[in-house]
Amino acid sequence: MTYLAPEQNGRVAEAAADAVSSLAPGWLRSVKPAYTTRHVARLLAEDRGEDYQLLRQAEPRPGDVLLARVTMLGRHRRLESPESRRAMLFPGDEILVAYGHRYAPDQFEAEVPPDLRPTHLVAAGGVAGTVTAAHRSMEPPTEIVPLGLLSRAGKVLHLSDAAPFRLRTDTEQPTCEVPTVAVVGTSMNSGKSTSLASLSNGLTAAGLRVAAGKATGTGAGGDARLFHDSGANPVVDFTDFGVVSTYRLPPREVRVLLSSMLAELALAHPDVILVELADGLGQDETVQLLTHAAATGLIHRVVFAAADALGAKAGVQMLRSLGLDVAAVTGRLTASPLAMREAGALLSVDVHPTESLCDPDIARTVLVGRE
Q1: Under CATH, what is the fold of the domain 170-368?
Q2: Which of 63, 149, 329, 370 has the fewest CB neighbours in a 10 Å radius?
Q3: What pLDDT, in 10s, does the model give residues 152-202?
Q4: In this structure, which long-range contacts are made by residues 109-115, counting pairs with CB atoms below 8 Å and at least 24 apart in sequence?
Q5: Does position 341 have pLDDT exceeding 90, yes or no?
Q6: Distance between CA atoms of 28 and 44, rounded to whole angstroms?
Q7: What are the residue boundaries of the structural domains of the chain, listed by start?
């Protein structure tokens, strides 16, 4: 084992060729943790980061905690901090992130590499992976060099080791009897998060206690903060269960994640639970999860966010074919009066401008239907 002497600027020095290297005292003070590793950063701060090592030769898995150095700035020039502040990155910065796959049609598709080779920062929330495909509008990704997986007593530190909630087994799953509304959409950036926040705000204004969660996606704090701002309490997301990204997660694990999240939110005895499913109906994980939720009664109603009228029609038909009750259509298309008129002519379900969901009367209608 090689001891790492601190550099003059106090940062972690490059490890030697050994597979395991110690960390210099006080190493944690100079590292920038990310939103995805916020619970790990809290755990490290409690014991001052002592007794941890860097494992330099390993096959990483999603959720493993990585100490890396920024070598070249690209698409992501800021790192979302545990408090959701966008911290500026500089070449040479050392960051605490987690390995994960990413699915983002408007940005990157990425996968966890097979070893600790140079890789990319693929999400500002703090996700490391190798880009395999990119939208043509994207800059090249920010490049990082792994210094090693964080480990203690020979065990690689995983996000789940510090997560405040755990995934429940099938036998531990209680029936969630709280009315649950899922917000899903045609794709990423179709208006799901804003729609959920608006609905949360309207239901809160109507005197209801709202709990909210983000069940799938790539680790980031913006949506959870938005849900808090809208009046929802409590709010959780999948990273609170030790999951950095739900892309490529086995279907059963995604189902367990959703049911575990609903069970935790139900413990607060809310009047209604709102839950967002990221990306769109073209993603396999989303469709499988909705199929399961419809069959088991985990989700009682759906609000569908669409970018255009034809997408709204196809999405509503698909959701109904899965046995789901579509309460309303909203989202980006409602920014255009013409698109709303098109959707109204194509659909037999209410089409609401996103901001109108803040109205208590409209929000109640979405929740319980028209009398």
Answers
A1: Rossmann fold (3.40.50)
A2: 370
A3: 888 999 999 999 999 987 655 555 689 999 999 998 889 999 999 999 999
A4: 109/133, 109/134, 110/141, 111/248, 112/60, 112/61, 112/62, 113/60, 114/59, 115/57, 115/58, 115/59, 115/60
A5: yes
A6: 8
A7: 20-161, 170-368
Which tokens is 367 given? 């929740």
Alpha-carbon radius of gyration of the chain: 22
Kindly provide the b/e burial profile for residues 13-48, where b requires at least 16 CB atoms within 10 angstroms of the residue's own CB.
bebeeeebbbbbeebbeebbbbbbbbbbbebbeeee
d(CA 12, CA 4): 7
